[in-house]
Amino acid sequence: MTQRLLRPLILTCLMAIALPLHAHAGPESQTMPAVSREDMAKASAKANQAKAPGDAAAVGQKTGEATAAPAPKELTGADKDAAIAKALSIGAFDPAQVVGMAKPWQIYYQKAESPVMEKLEGLHDMVMVIITIITIFVLALLVFICIRFRAKANPTARRFAHNTVVEVVWTVIPILILILIGIPSIRVHYEYAKNANIIDNPDLTLKVTGNQWYWHYDYPDFGFGYDSNITKTDKLKPGEPRLLMVDNPIVVPVNKVVRVQITSADVIHSWAMPAFGVKQDAVPGKLSETWFKAEEPGIYFGQCSELCGKYHGFMPIMIKVVSDEDFKAWTEGAKLKFAANDNMQFALNQ
Ligand SMILES: [Cu+2]
Predict the structure, then answer these.
(1) How far does the centroid of ligand 1 lie from the alpha carbon of residue 109, in Å?
(2) Do the domain assignments include residue 124?
(3) pLDDT exceeding 70 applies to what percent of the chain?
(4) Interval between CA 39 and ligand 1 midpoint (Å)
(5) pLDDT attached to residue 73
(6) Distance from the CA of 211 to the center of ligand 1, in angstroms?
(7) Apex 305 CA angle, 300 and 306, nearest 5
(8) Where does the chain show beta strands of DSSP type E?
(9) For residue 157, is pLDDT > 70?
(10) Which CATH number characterizes residue 272's domain?
(11) Structural domain of 169
């Protein structure tokens, strides 16, 4: 009897899951499998050469100067110092500009500042309501059973097993709840995964390499890279947050798709930026990709989120989101400050 009832029910539920998925997967899903590994590799290779001018243009570079070393204007002396000073001031910390940072006694997320994080928050809130209801329901049931069926009030226990109705109910309701959670959950994944297109045409590529215990950042579109180390507590200036401040922050333009390629030089680290909903393991020998689009200029903090050794808690991440013009000025100064990396130039010239 139970089986006869359950089989069509399970089939109906499976169809209920499959149909909306199919509908959501719609037209875009056809493009997703089309992006093969080979295409990804090609796109990645292009990012280092032909695409570089396009990327640069998208982030404010008007000419094709990003194809190679900054040959057109070889700044020297005072001009060079001024460009570097400008870059430093653009990347500088200012407490008034902090947008994404954990606060004492914070019990909820930081303010969402990327499209993916906004969807994640929505999903979290919904699931939170559901689990709260379930927890209260189960607790109430336990209390009811403890009181109603205690030995004193219920001296002769009834001896029966199986109840078809109850069994069907406690099978079907959880299935419905899972479907209820599953649909928005898959929508978040979908929002994230539609970057099958986005990630091949980013406005900017940032390569992140985890090291014990600091981060190395490369801007392959511009041919420079640098290490980013924590600012020690005794070196902090007034207002700078302890354990979060770094010497060289990441600088990215606002409202631009930043493709982040993440790897590690030693052990597994994890590059996490809560306000953008990004957390990606940095695995030695593997290049992982993710992306974000920062929606508000300001300063954001994150931390290594994979236990990576004794100074795991001392490799923070600082991102400064700036306007296109500031980003362009920053890249010009940063190129000079961090001097062009030979390998990078080689890649750009291929
Ligand atoms: Cu780490």
Answers:
(1) 22
(2) yes
(3) 74
(4) 31
(5) 59
(6) 7
(7) 160
(8) 98-100, 204-211, 214-219, 224-228, 250-253, 257-264, 269-273, 278-282, 288-293, 298-304, 316-322
(9) yes
(10) 2.60.40.420
(11) 115-150+165-197
How far is ligand 1, taken at its centre, from the CA of residue 263, in Å? 11
- 56 lies in some domain: no
Q: What percent of the chain has pLDDT over 90?
A: 50
What is the domain count for the chain? Answer: 2
| Same domain flag for 207 and 239 | yes
Q: How far apart are the C-alpha atoms of 70 and 323, rounded to whole Å?
A: 21
pLDDT band at 339 (very low <50, low <70, confident <90, very high): confident
Q: Quick one: 285 and 192 in the same domain?
A: no
Q: How far is the CA of 278 from the centre of ligand 1 (A)?
A: 15
pLDDT at 32 (0 to 100): 34
Q: How far apart are CA 344 and CA 334, in angstroms?
A: 14
One domain for residues 236 and 332: yes
Least confident range from 205-214, 270-279, 335-344: namely 335-344
pTM above 0.90, yes or no: no
Q: Are 339 and 214 in contact (CB under 8 A)?
A: no
261 alpha carbon to ligand 1 midpoint, in Å?
16
Distance 207 CA to ligand 1 centre (A): 16
User: Could you report the per-residue pLDDT of 238-281, keeping only the tens digit for each?
Assistant: 899 999 999 999 999 999 999 999 999 999 999 999 999 999 99
For residues 231 and 240, is the Cβ–Cβ distance under 8 A?
yes
Does 223 lie in the same domain as 127?
no
